[in-house]
């Protein structure tokens, strides 16, 4: 019988892909020759729209992670790894995301402890 994959791993992979896309867009912010944002240009408006969309996709993907309980120990470990990656790259962002990750991890641990 095939092993059913842990849904948290799928959710984490979606979040990582969305975050990578957001990072790619962020580094392409149009700037003026003096380094300031070129926020009065059409190019900037297009970039800003893409940036907002990517941020929304990443936020939705993270919401999916925090709504998905691991079903395996490997999934629980992957959730911890994902959170630690966020923490190492974006400590302030991670502070806001910790409660959701810890709540679903706690639920999983309670389910296997019973």
What is the H/E order?
A: HHHH
Shape: elongated
Multimerization status: single chain
Category by helix and strand content: mainly alpha
Number of helices: 4
- Unreliable sequence segments: none
Number of strands: 0
- What would you report as the Rg, rounded to the nearest angstrom? 18 Å
Domain count: 1
First-to-last CA distance? 25 Å
Average pLDDT figure: 87
Can you give the helix content as a percent range?
over 70%
Strand content: under 5%
- Major sheet details: none
Give the topology.
Layout: H1 7-26, H2 42-67, H3 73-89, H4 91-113
Helix pairs in contact: 1-2, 1-3, 2-4, 3-4
Question: Can you walk through the features of this model?
Answer:
The structure is a single chain. The chain is mainly α and 114 residues long. The protein has one domain. It has helices spanning 7-26, 42-67, 73-89, 91-113. Helix 1 (7-26) runs antiparallel to helix 2 (42-67), helix 1 (7-26) packs parallel to helix 3 (73-89) and helix 2 packs parallel to helix 4. The radius of gyration is 18 Å and the shape is elongated. It starts with 6 loop residues before the first helix and ends with a helix.
């Amino acid at each position: 019988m095939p092993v059913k994959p842990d849904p948290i791993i799928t959710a984490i992979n979606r979040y990582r892909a969305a975050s990578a896309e957001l990072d790619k867009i962020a580094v392409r912010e149009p700037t003026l020759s003096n380094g300031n944002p070129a926020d009065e240009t059409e190019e900037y408006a297009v970039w800003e729209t893409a940036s907002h969309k990517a941020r929304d996709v990443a936020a939705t993907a993270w919401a999916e992670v925090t709504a998905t309980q691991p079903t395996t120990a490997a999934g629980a470990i992957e959730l911890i790894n994902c959170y630690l990656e966020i923490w190492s790259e974006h400590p302030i962002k991670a502070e806001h995301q910790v409660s959701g990750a810890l709540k679903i991890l706690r639920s999983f641990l309670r389910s296997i402890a019973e």
